[in-house]
Write a structure and sequence with these properties.
This protein is mainly alpha-helical. It is 69% helix and 4% strand. A hairpin with a 3-residue loop joins strand 1 and strand 2.
């Protein structure tokens, strides 16, 4: 397959994934509803290959599930599963922040612009835009760590979709959530590794579904850990 054709296929599968993800998040596709490859291929006027790839990515993100007997269906992410994702993500991002501290000190304006994008989305009540800006803020830090394995694992958590799911379920104040990122920026400005780890870990856990939050000792690391 040529590079152009491969790029087109990836682009199409991404678009299909994003459309289906949005339908799941806004309730157009209900929990338990079946997703049929052939019908989706017809809808998107394509072969089943990019549809299959999009469904595989959605399954990896935990938004759908497949079985031999029931086919592919929309899955509901339980609060327990969502909480576990936040726990893992908090540790990944704390690690990334420590590894990227020196690089991120030169990218403060970039992070500030992403917070402004979140605030603008909050003013417009644009949940999708907020999710995109939020995911970009955190991705900027993870990518700056320059660790391909870390980035791959983090991407599998599908931060944008998980953020949107949690915002919908918790009816969170989007503007307050956006402003909460400023503590992370301040930590990078000061360049203190222990503080950077603590702020990133604490930030993610702060937005973990509240009824899943454990005792303080399980939510944040002791100040002297680093």
């Amino acid at each position: 397959m040529s590079s152009d054709r491969r790029s087109k296929k990836v682009s199409l599968s991404t678009r299909i994934r994003e459309v289906l993800s949005a339908r799941i998040l806004n309730g157009e596709l209900q929990p338990g509803e079946r997703l049929v490859e052939m019908r989706l291929a017809e809808e998107f006027d394509t072969s089943q290959a990019p549809v299959r790839e999009a469904l595989r990515e959605l399954e990896m993100a935990g938004m759908i599930e497949s079985s031999r007997n029931r086919g592919t269906r929309v899955k509901v992410t339980s609060l327990k599963e969502l909480g576990e994702i936040y726990d893992v993500r908090s540790e990944l991002e704390a690690f990334a922040g420590a590894a990227a501290a020196e690089v991120m000190a030169t990218r403060i304006p970039q992070l500030q612009a992403q917070v402004e994008a979140m605030l603008e989305a909050a003013r417009q009540s644009d949940l999708t835009g907020f999710g995109e800006a939020n995911a970009l803020f955190h991705r900027t830090i993870v990518e700056a760590a320059d660790n391909a394995t870390l980035l791959d694992i983090w991407q599998r958590l599908d931060v944008k979709s998980r953020t949107m799911v949690n915002m919908i379920r918790s009816s969170s104040d989007l503007a307050a959530t956006a402003r909460a990122h400023m503590k992370i920026i301040a930590a990078f400005e000061r360049g203190n590794i222990a503080e950077i780890r603590r702020e990133l870990r604490g930030h993610v856990i702060k937005f973990k579904p509240q009824n899943l939050a454990g005792p303080p000792s399980s939510r944040t690391a002791p100040d002297g850990e680093d």
